[in-house]
Automatic annotation (TrEMBL):
Location within or outside the cell: Cytoplasm
Major localisation: cytoplasm
This protein's pathway: Amino-acid biosynthesis; L-arginine biosynthesis; L-arginine from L-ornithine and carbamoyl phosphate: step 3/3
Cross-referenced Pfam families: ASL_C2, Lyase_1
Name the UniProt record assigns to this protein: Argininosuccinate lyase
EC number per UniProt: 4.3.2.1
Positions of the Fumarate lyase N-terminal domain: 6-300
GO cellular component: cytosol
Name of the gene this protein is made from: argH
PROSITE patterns, per database record: FUMARATE_LYASES
Amino acid sequence: MKLWGGRFEKGTDKLVDDFNSSISFDCRMYKHDILGSIAHANMLGKCGIISDEESSLIQSTLKNILNDIEAGKVEFEIDAEDIHMNVEKILISRIGDTGKKLHTGRSRNDQVALDIRMYLKDEINVINDMLINIENTIIKISEDNLDTILPGYTHLQRAQPITFAHHMMAYFEMFKRDIGRLSDCRSRMNILPLGSGALAGTTYPLDRYMVANELGFNDVTQNSLDGVSDRDFTIELLSCLSILMMHISRLSEEIILWSSHEFGFIELDDSYSTGSSIMPQKKNPDVAELARGKTGRVYGSLMTMLTVMKSLPLAYNKDMQEDKEAVFDAVDTVKMCLPVFSNMLATMKLRKANMYKAAQGGFTNATDIADYLVKKGIPFRSAHEIIGKMVLYCIENNKAIDDMSMEEFKSFSGKIEKDVYSEISLEKCVSGRRLPGGPARETEQKAIGNAKAYISALL
């Protein structure tokens, strides 16, 4: 008979058991379920709700069960429904009626709310470590490419020259925000729901703060209805992971473009590429493409949770069991993507000559020659018009601005002198942008130094 089956005259149909059971996916929370139960049993004993001897026996047996699970000696049962009932059933089978006292003062509603918070807190820590690894990879790439010039783009059109260091450090900032968001999410998640009972708390004199302290929570929930029905923390985590994967996908898209023959900016290492079954010349950026594709999978998990929760009345509803597969899959997907993505970045080769050649085309120094005229006293809008006509002239005559003779320059403005050639070189265009946040070497070195200090503070 089910542990909750006292008021039932018939057992549940096997199809219902299969449909209702969550043990196939929530079994991953076994450690957190047992640690939460140990803390609960300890508190029950300290508060005199059960005897010290009973509390000690329950705790020691739970520890043995944990060891047995990790040693592969335990098989979970579908008809016990979930990890909580499986653990409790095993406990009772080992110590009899004393094991039945563990559930005093709690419900599966607040128990599962506790377990998933504990589990996800640990997973956030793992993901943050993976993000730090990617950040360190980006720092290394950037340090090695402070003088590697390539075109920066807007609208996927060549715009202005920048350095590869500057380009990659933009992604450092994105992942830095991801780390911050995950940290904020973890802080809001770090509130103990145990003690909320099924929905209305309990008449037992529980010490919720004792349990919170033992399990590393910062506080306890202040409303029992909210304590058991809140899944904001899963939605928030999925939002954070979706934004993280969006950043991964953006960089994936650039890697895919850069590795194409049309760009030729990078070559991915053989160990992070695949070939074609029919075309022997192909070298495909499948890691980047898969990461881009898996982004949609994480978005799907977020939409799943928003949809599950949007119409639920207070308090707990069985619909909420759907939270786990969605958030577990998103966590697993992110954890699969981050390490392989970091290694792909670390091993890719840059074709710096191609980058530089691309920066020389597309009139990426047009803004700089306009600024040159402004410094000569011409209003910016007038300078903008002059250079626009100059670019049109160069297009019609199939030449770059740098290739124009002084006579040609003078035909557009008498203010232009011989110093224009040095002023509009790619190197000068980059080095002149020394404002904080700019691509100049010394500015980027300072940004990298700040990035290193940020990562060191996290460790």
